[in-house]
């Protein structure tokens, strides 16, 4: 067995961190060109780089209005960054597993095979091809469905661009839009909302799940990953829908404009979009405080690994829910589908939640000092934006366009950490490659709470 | 090696849960007596039981004003419940370690000895005697110091009762007061605030730490528990003080009434009281939103195990901070004072934080639906109260006196779970004593965030 990292010139976390930094810088510079804006002025560096970070990290928070500020060129740059960001992260998230597979012993290899159903996807190239092929297919289908809606409204050229942009943005869970106020003006168009929902959910499940589902007819079994991801996603979508029906009274706030049936679709979308799509059909200033808290929780959870969604991920939540139940019942093992989760897996999941929590609290504390909260809001105005950035959800209660410079830097850092991964970035920053000591100190326990 | 729990008639978690439930019921019934109130009316069951829960769980949240509502008899009942609650939990928290010690093998026994410095404290009786003796000594000293302040103001009898009540309440981190508005009317009395601070900090460190410190002269070493508890407590007190100086501008809001030097003492007290004393010298409606978030975080952390404080505990935070740093640096082990923490210890700490987080979010979600938030507040109005109850901190932004029936039940449940322990209560509720299976399913990993 070889020492991980020795056989590559540059370790994977470094490639990811530096690669995406370079992409953001390049995108930011392109967006600074006068031809990128409708007014043909140069955009300030901080806003160009903020937009590039938001697009590459497929978040969707913006300090300038995408529809009003950027030209067709600028919007195309954003579109390309979203696509690279979306597909890039989706692929990269499973690379460690693939690279690992070649180096590790037979038992671990079998475990990975069982967990992820990797049989023929033996090398990086074929994974890349598979992901890109399937993703483009789904996005093309989505764009075609949107075109049916957009062609009568916008004609061929504009209709096509609108369809492609929103199919890509929805599938990549990017949260960008060309309507000027997200989908708020489209609340009366359930067809559009449902197509966007389907794209968002598909993107948020990730290609490991699609592959498993496509192969199900032949194989008659789903991997642990797929089972856990689908169960958790299902529970969150249905549970979220029911809770939002309750807390928002089926969006009674919309009553004047929209019929009850259409309000039902909009309420469903309230449960879909926090999983971290970021496109919204109703401004979050009209949502109840219970709905805001629920949205914050759903954003923090996010989608499935190997997808375009952010957050701590459905599998993390699923695993920890099962683990909690087992611990409280006094069971030794967490079982799911006749398998148990390894201690290392559980430890990593918990550590991830803890680190995310600390990061969100520290960022929140800084922003409560630097930013101004409007009279009628409280702490949620800050926490919503912090978690939206870190989960790369991209929804807003209104803070982002009014951010101070420090605020913009913090939100950009959160989007980057949230997308590239806390571990990955810290590995690069701390240059964590020092060899392990040859000895270990004796273990001790301390009393806990 | 024997199977744990088989040699006792009733397992420890059950004794704790049912014992404290019985104590709360008894206290609640006594408080319902007309002679317990100043007006000689019977107090409604829900408020009597709420007060009994708050006193026994040494929280300090109250739906009726302790000074104005209860008679000397009622206040004495509360005082006794605080003392039993405080000393009871302090002792009970180490009982599992002591009972474990007799049953386990030599290696584990040596580990416990190293960790907690248990050498002569071999049995339950001597631990009880030690805790009660030392606690009463500190409280007596505290009461004497308070009497110096209270005698000139209140005379002998009333001064004595005031001294004893507030010394007990402060040491037990109970948060009850007889001034009617916590210590708000005493903001100009730095002597009082500093004596209370000393009692709060002493109570929050717990008897394992005191014992270690008392034996230090002879032994010249501190246990891992004490080192970790003292370091974390020190960092939180000093760090909290500096941050509150910053966010509250040394309580400029108080300028009219209090000199800058005295404001400094009050700012220091802002850092002391969330660790979970609950006595306050300034209403939290006057604190900045950053200060509120900081207070919420400090309450959630709380004090040290084996003490009268609540929260996830200093040792949990200390361990997880060290662990996070190690993980981010790519180290295998978490080291502190030439010891490493066991994986089980780390797992338990993380699991605790996760469970507390889930509980607080679920409770918060229910309360955002059932309770009414005043115009000028946001989500923090609910979250502050939920975490205050669950950490048994007892500070309030004003919600508790206005709680609905459902709200009161949720806050009571949080105080009980927070004090008796989520694990302990769930063990009893779920009757978790079923034997382990003879086989284990194969382990698998799932991808995480
Ligand atoms: K997004
Ligand atoms: K308290």
Automatic annotation (TrEMBL), chains A, B:
UniProt-listed Pfam families: TrkH (PF02386)
NCBIfam families in UniProt: 2a38 (TIGR00933)
Main location as per UniProt: membrane
Highest rank taxon of the organism: Bacteria
Topology with respect to the bilayer: Multi-pass membrane protein
InterPro entries: Cat_transpt (IPR003445), TrkH (IPR004772)
Protein's name in the database: TrkH family potassium uptake protein
Keyword entries, A-Z: Cell membrane, Ion transport, Membrane, Potassium, Potassium transport, Transmembrane, Transmembrane helix, Transport
Localization terms from the record: Cell membrane
Entry annotated with the keyword Membrane: yes
Source organism: Loigolactobacillus binensis
Segments crossing the lipid bilayer: 12-33, 45-64, 76-100, 127-148, 191-216, 228-246, 282-301, 346-369, 381-399, 405-430
